[in-house]
Amino acid sequence: MLWNSFPLKAVIFDLDGTLYISPYNWRWMKDRLGVKDGLILDHLYSLEEPERTRKFQLLDEMEESAIEKGKIAEGALKLLNYLKKNGIKTGVLTNNSRRLAEKVLSNIPFDFDALITRDDGVYKPYPGAMETILKLLEVKPEETIYVGDNLLDIKAAEPFPLKATFIINDSEELREKFKSRVIFVSEIGEIIGFLDGKINNRGGK
Among 52, 73, 114, 199, which one is most buried in terms of CB atoms within 10 A? Predict the structure, then answer.
């Protein structure tokens, strides 16, 4: 993958666990929210009011608590500044709320071109999430790279002919199952090594 030069117009990032590392305890959070199987958001959106609003407020509180203990991922700023220098657009696609996503991004000294959250009515892994941010960035999938950190991100990217999907994860199970479809790295800064010298953006954005 990515052995030859290619045009690149945008890189879309997941937020939690990718650009910003927070100590989420998903099993504990699911237990508190009453989620036995599947996605937290699928479960919460299936609830009737007022329970739906109450559970979303609880989710918001738990997410904010984790975020307050978080930090910028090692190598993230180096990669972001590399992309900016090369004239490449950047977007963030997260299942977090807009309020908390903006709070996280306020800790990252970088201006992103687009942000899509669950408050926009779409969320991963469903195709509408990726479709929405691609449209907002005004780029085609084949001109775009996606960077995430887990199975949800892999599933979100799979339906699209993206130039590449990078996953920051050391799980041997994930690597074995998806090695032909994604590029695995141990930390986000490694992505520069895959891109350096291969980006060919002649002709402008």
Answer: 73
Amino acid at 130: M
Q: Which residues pair with 17 in a beta bridge?
A: none
Task: Collect the ranges in the chain with pLDDT lower than 70.
Answer: 1, 3, 202-205
Phi-psi region of 172 (alpha: psi -120 to 50; beta: other; left: phi over 0): alpha
Residues 76 and 48 in one domain: no
User: Is residue 161 domain-resident?
Assistant: yes
Query: Is residue 50 reached through a cis peptide bond, with omega within 30 degrees of 0 on the bond before it?
Result: yes
Q: Is the pTM of this model over 0.90?
A: yes
Which residues, other chains included, contact 26 with Cβ-Cβ below 8 Å and sequence gap of 6+?
40
Neighbour count for residue 203 (Cβ, 10 Å)? 6
Which pLDDT does position 6 carry in this prediction?
84
Q: Is residue 145 part of a domain?
A: yes
Q: Which residues span the domain enclosing 97?
A: 10-21+72-195
96 and 51, same domain (yes or no): no
